Amino acid sequence: MSRMSRPPSARRLAAALALVHLFSGPVAFAQYRPPPLTESQLLVKEAETAQVSASAAVTAGNKKEAEEKNRKALQLFEQALTLDPTSAPAAAGLGATANALGDYARVAAKLPEVSASHPEDVSLTFPLGVALFKLRRFQEAVPLLEKVSENNAPEHLIVNYYLGSYYLHGRRGDVAIAKFQRYLAQRPPKLAVNDFQIHELIGQGHLMRKDVAAARAAFQQAQAGRPESVTAQMGLASVLEAEGRDEEALTLVEGLVDRFPQAKEPKERLGRMFLRSGNVAGAEKQALALVKLEGTPAAHLLLGDVRLAQKQPKEAEAEFRKVLELAPGVVAAQIAVGKALQAQGRNEEAIKYLEAALETDGGNLELWASLGSVNRRAGRFQRAVEVHRRLVELAPQQALGHVLLGADHFATGQWDQAIEDYSNALRVEPNHPGAQQWLAQSLAHRARGRADSNRLDDAVRDLRRAYDLERSAAMARRLGAALLEQRAFAQARPVLEQGVTLEGATWREHWLLGYAHLGEGNAEAALRAFVQAEKRTEEPSELADVSVGAALAEVELGRVDDAVERLSEPGPSKAARQLAEANLPLMLLRRALTRLESADVENARKDVELTEKFNLAKQPELAKLALLTKALVQTEQGRFAEATPLLKRALTPTPAWADANTRFLAEAYVLYRKGQVPFARKALAAASKKPSSWQAKWIASLSNSLHRLEGERAYATGNFKLAEKAFKAALAGAQEDAALQHNLACVNYGKRKFPDAVAVWHKLETSVPMASFNLGIEAQRRNDIPEAVESYRRYLASGGPRAATAREWRDRLMALHGLGGAASSEATEATATETLP
Q1: Which end of the chain is more exposed for a tag (fewer CB within 10 A), N or C?
Q2: What b-and-e string marks burial along 460-478, b requiring 16 or more CB atoms within 10 Å of the CB?
Q3: 748 in a domain, yes or no?
Q4: What mean pLDDT is predicted for residues 11-28?
Q5: How far is Cα 447 from Cα 482, in angstroms, rounded to an integer?
């Protein structure tokens, strides 16, 4: 049957059955067919295939084939990017292959726009950051590489190595170490063999942080991975230097030079070490050997530095220029050329040279720093400030620019600005040693100016801050001297006590410490400090200065003779002579007064005469003290007519060293010595109004002496009533005084109270020799000749002042004793002892 004859319903049935089967079976989806690839995508796919082949060739060690495949891939990726400038895969592929071929400039030119459109695409950021880093465009590269590092992908571990090296170069040890440690955490096991290199870099970072122990551990770990690693052992040498063990470090590097004669680094390091220690000949030997071994830029740079140290700037310039021929753009060499030109007096040429270098590398901080410094050394201070301010703008978070600005202002004596600059440097780098040192120096200079303008409080504040920053003997000396100027002795002493223990302490610190002790009243400690100062110098003028201070301490200790002897020969120091001339008259007068107290009147007179040889016209207060001392000497000599007017001249008007009642005290004493008791008492009463503590004691003593004198005079005239009254008044203030007790007993004897008097004399016989003499008189009165003779013998044994009389009476009694023992009538009254001081 023909098709046309088939019933129409059959076709509909077949369709219906098919539909039923479709709905009753499992759910089915229409197959997705991606749109056809664009021409750019096809090129990318083809390039990726070539890229895979290049990787396989690298694995097989076929470098030539790998390069061919990479060049083919690069060409295809670049064509794809040309067709579609927004294609991220094309750009990423181009970046990867171009970097593999070392064509970093192509990456830097092609990828920035695409990467900016896809900021989170690490496949773009990574090759672009690496290319910029290789081109030394660090300001652009580092932010991109940091973003890749944060992604923490093992395939990008090389980024951490790049960043660690960059931060290490920038002396940011903490950040560098963190990057190297992240590298170690990400690197695959097959790369572990090279870990020693990373540990060496970590060691360098710890050295920058001044963590010597951690640095040593890192270098030792590096050495464990590669025992004969020259760089690891050189790192250990750096650790020894940081520990202050320079000799051991030098020995270690010398050993490396001997064991590895073909290694360049140890020779260069040894040459640098010799150069720092001043061994220029040794440095030259290493530099020439290094140039002969291999004329590297580092070799010629070292030789150039040697020539500079040898004061051969022209030859040094030639070596530095060789460095630039071999490696154009080496900043250290460019800076060195500037130094060599400046050393030849070619300042303008040096400045122009460095300015030209900056035109090709305007972002180099070291060049900016050197240009500013050369301007400063050439005397172009304003230009130096401008350059270094530009340096601060380029690197605001580094101390370098602030420190150099501080040096510019320091050179011109602008202390306020210098202090601000160094403070800014410490704000961004709190432990910057140079900034701390020069801030302290700037503060010290400003303090000197403030002290000169009578702003001593401000000067002390500056010096306190400077001493906090720089704990040195010199800074302690400055602060201590300022505090002494303020007479703040209690504050100066601990500063100077610490100063004498610091490295570099000299005689001056001990000398000032002596004055601090003197100011506190500790003369013994002061003398010890002055003695230490004398031990630390042999310079005659310095010894003279110390001797004056020692003399002042000796006076306080009562060793006036020693002090006068010191001051009598002040030595060649002008300051010492001035101090001696200012102090010797006072010392002589103090010695004269001391001698008067011990009744050495003649030597006191000589001291006063020596004092009068000095020109005291410029020291009116001291001149008045000399007049008073002379008056007292004349008083002791009984020259009252001369002493009285001198006292008036000395104490009218009242000098600064005297109290208001001093004149009355002096007059009372002169009247006492003249024996004018009533007038002396009147003057003493006038002096007794509001006396000081020492005056109260002295007034009591003089009052007691007046009672004694009155009692002795009354007894001598037979006025026993007045004598008794006077002696009892004297005893009221000196109850244990044996002489007064003896004299009162004499009064009782005169009043015929014999038993009372004898009892007292017997008690006092051992302490008052005159008691034995009086007991002899009493025995004669009783006609007890043997007792009288024995009493006179006891008196003679004591060596009393009336020995001649006692001997005569004893002999006479002994002669008369054999004739019947008749009593002698020579002695009928007791003898009172003199109690005048």
Answers
A1: N
A2: bebbbbbbebbebbbbbbb
A3: no
A4: 39
A5: 9
